[in-house]
């Protein structure tokens, strides 16, 4: 009988997870270089806001699906903060509401954006696949898939700097989503990483957790590939948002 493969040490496994982000996180996608460098057209920015909204709006749905499977009250208590961060405790609060402020700032009607009409099929398939993954896979894999948050603070900081430098719409209200995530995310990251390191206690579980994080980086990357093909290269598929749709009157004028 082949002896069981020993797990990596806690330190080595954490380094393995961080290496996945260094290689695969979507901050390396050319669309973000284009966006942060001021090279996006107004319509490319609007397309990004519309499609990214779909992802933002599904995060609390993903977290609700996860919590519905959790027996441990302590884990549920720790996790429900994520839903409150995005949904808010009252109407008009939370990350989703702040994203709609960004939509308004770039000239989009927030009510139109909130319908998710015009979202690219590639975005929809990737995001819905992520929600399904969290609903169906093991709790360890579900938590591990959230660890892209380890790499988010840098992209948020770069985004704030780049948007303020290059785009007239960028101000404190428009960028409030990103600024708030700089303070919200660290606690989530610390909890999720510790939970994964504690529970990935065999080589097989470590492999599953690493694969889940890789899957999540693919979800994020795929959304930007769809956006690039449609709005940078101009291959807008049937049913997707087209420039001129869903604008505020002041943007259409």
TrEMBL record:
Tell me the route in metabolism or biology where this protein functions.
Answer: Cofactor biosynthesis; pyrroloquinoline quinone biosynthesis
Under the heading InterPro entries, the entry gives:
Haem_Oase-like_multi-hlx, PqqC, PqqC-like, Thiaminase-2/PQQC
Q: What UniProt keywords apply to this chain's record, in alphabetical order?
A: Oxidoreductase, PQQ biosynthesis
Q: Which GO terms describe its molecular function?
A: pyrroloquinoline-quinone synthase activity
> Which major enzyme category is it?
oxidoreductase
* Reactions listed under catalytic activity: 6-(2-amino-2-carboxyethyl)-7,8-dioxo-1,2,3,4,7,8-hexahydroquinoline-2,4-dicarboxylate + 3 O2 = pyrroloquinoline quinone + 2 H2O2 + 2 H2O + H(+)
Coiled coil residues, start to end: none
Q: Which residues form the Thiaminase-2/PQQC domain?
A: 15-225
Q: What is its EC number?
A: 1.3.3.11
Name any Gene Ontology BP term.
pyrroloquinoline quinone biosynthetic process
What does the UniProt record say this protein does? Ring cyclization and eight-electron oxidation of 3a-(2-amino-2-carboxyethyl)-4,5-dioxo-4,5,6,7,8,9-hexahydroquinoline-7,9-dicarboxylic-acid to PQQ.
What family, per the record? Belongs to the PqqC family.
Q: What is this protein called?
A: Pyrroloquinoline-quinone synthase
